[in-house]
Amino acid sequence: EVQLQASGGGLVQAGGALRLSCAAAILNSYDWAIAWFRQAPGKEREGVAFRSEREGTTVYGDSVKGRFIISMDKATNTVYLQMNNLQPEDSATYYCAAVENAAGTRYMEFIRYWGLGTQVTVSS
After folding, report:
1. How far apart are CA 35 and CA 52, in angstroms?
2. Alpha carbon of 90 to those of 12, 47, 72, 87, 103: distances in Å?
3. pLDDT for residue 28 is more than 80
């Protein structure tokens, strides 16, 4: 079983930054890709970022390209999401998820595990 726990959310002003962390209790970083997705009240889930160490693939959602960066510390199986220039529309609960490695741009269709999310609120 893959266990994931997102943390690092909080309240930030527009233009600010946050770094989310995802502790992934998985066998090793090549078994699964990791993705971040978010969901705001009343809205559908939205893919934010995807990273496969095995495939060497990184994908970002259109709304976060150029502002968010996904990275992985393979020694600790911790995945980070650096979020810069945050805007009120980025407010949501953010989740990290284990995804099939070959998912690529279709990563939202191949989510297999996810954990509790962390709330991000951006004030204007």
Report:
1. 9
2. 11, 12, 22, 5, 24
3. no
